[in-house]
Amino acid sequence: MLPDVARVWEYMQRVAQELFALYGYEPVYTPLFEHTDVFTRGIGEATDIVSKEMYTFEDKGGRSITLRPEGTASVVRSALEHGLTANGGQAKIYYSGPMFRYERPQKGRMRQFWQIGVEVLGAAESTADAEVITLLWRYFEALGIPASNMRLLLNSMGDGSCRPRYREKIAAFIRSHGAELCEECNHRADTNPFRAFDCKNPGCVAVMGRAPLLRDELCDACAAHYASVRSHLDALGIPYVEEPKLVRGLDYYTRTVFEVQVDAGLGSQNGIGGGGRYDRLMEEYGGPATPGLGFALGFERTLLAMEAAGVKAPGLALAEVFVARVDDSVTAEVFAVAQSLRDAGIATELDHQGRSLKSQFKQADRLGARFVVVVGPDELAAGEVTLRDMTTKEENRVAMDAAPAAVAAALG
Ligand code: HAM
Q1: Which of 18, 122, 202, 390 could form a disulfide with 90 if both were Cys (CB 3.0 to 4.6 A apart)?
Q2: Is the model's pTM score more than 0.70?
């Protein structure tokens, strides 16, 4: 990732850090790899991620190790290991970094990609669902992606009391339409029937369009939770669309699931962020029943969505000021003046390549410097520097010692 992209990355991280802090989230860093079992148990053996996409290898100690395909499993594993939610406490966490999935690369889909995500552990109430969904939406808005370019899909996956019955119903539906469905969907009847809703095969899409919906089979508690999430979102004016066929690709979800998709710029990889609730995950790792939920979004896809919407990340000036030397006799003074500006918190650049004065001015322009501080033998003799405004071309002489204060005042 070269500087032109890396700088946008840092901007996206900064926007996230500032926004997530407003909602009370704290950073964590989990390892890039874990024992394979952390992911197989958490994400689910029958998911595409675990069955096809993990970078798994044996280390020199004979342990099975996997590069993390996502962050949730690691966060929950570490929260349990370190007792972050011991005694019924709540933890609000965010993380960012590279994730690894052995997928077929295409636009917006790579084998190493960058996620930023949040997780709330210990919160069962529907306000937590609405908070997390709102935060995801507000983040994309804060980056400048217009709401009209995005679609927020919402669904409930039910829980242990209503989903198993529905799962059997879908499996039976798939079996009864076996001849019209692709081989993989037929196989899914036994392994992971919900994934048949995600099949892109037009025949399968048509058949699954007639499948029974979990929305109509939710138990009372799940239906009430889902209605409550929607009412909180309605009250905030967050424009979700109910999508009863949204199932998402990870097994740990219970109740609320959601995804933000965009139309422009991404082709079929149009999900820029998504997440949901996973109230059983901590128990999967042998911990106490602890509700949880969160989201993750992909930076590469978000950037494509920003570009498609014509949004430019604000360019940080590489230098506010350039200190130029008229000739070699003032090199030491130029270096000292540049340092005094930097010490005053002003982004400053100077020439390290023996360029002519003219080409130093060109470099100052390229860097976006608003002022050039010129030091030459004349200025030096008077104990001064020349301060040139690159916009108005106005020039002023100021005392060398006063340069940082004068530049700070001129920059406003
Ligand atoms: P996910 O939907 O698998 O969810 O990934 C979240 C986001 O990561 C996607 O919306 C997409 O932007 C990005 N992404 C995924 N795979 C790729 C890829 N191969 N190339 C580029 N970008 C990709 C999760 O990972 C869950 N852990 C989210 C979550 C957090 N659920 C609860 N808490």
Answers
A1: 122
A2: yes
